[in-house]
Amino acid sequence: MKPRTLARLDMLATEQETQALEAVRRHNATLSQAVEHRGLLAAYRTRLAQSWQDGTVLPAAQARRAGQFAAATHSAEGQITQSASLAAAQLESAITKLGQVRAQRHALAEALRKAAQLAARETEQRAERDRPAPGRTRT
Fold this sequence. Notes:
Helix content: over 70%
Largest sheet: none
Structural class: mainly alpha
Distance between the termini: 39 Å
Radius of gyration: 32 Å
Number of helices: 2
Oligomer: single chain
Shape: rod-shaped
Number of strands: 0
């Protein structure tokens, strides 16, 4: 391939690498957010359990709301787990794609290096052919 074509392909691969890195960053952020949300839910559940265990008398409406909240936290936990699983799968895919793109860029860089060497060799050979032999002059 021509060096210009290789350079363009490398530019496209660089863009793909940037997109893959961004996807990895996004999926890592989603996983971090899931960990934070799980921590918040655990803290709320702990506080709720402590309020039941200290023996304080609660109005029925407050007890009902606490029960609804407990049920909602279990539902939220399921959603967080599902979101984290999806993000983990997408992260794995993005990491694989990043590896492929980097291998492609490495191959392109090697091809570009070889093309540059070949062009330099051809230029050197052309200059050698065009150089007059010592003691001879062109007429």
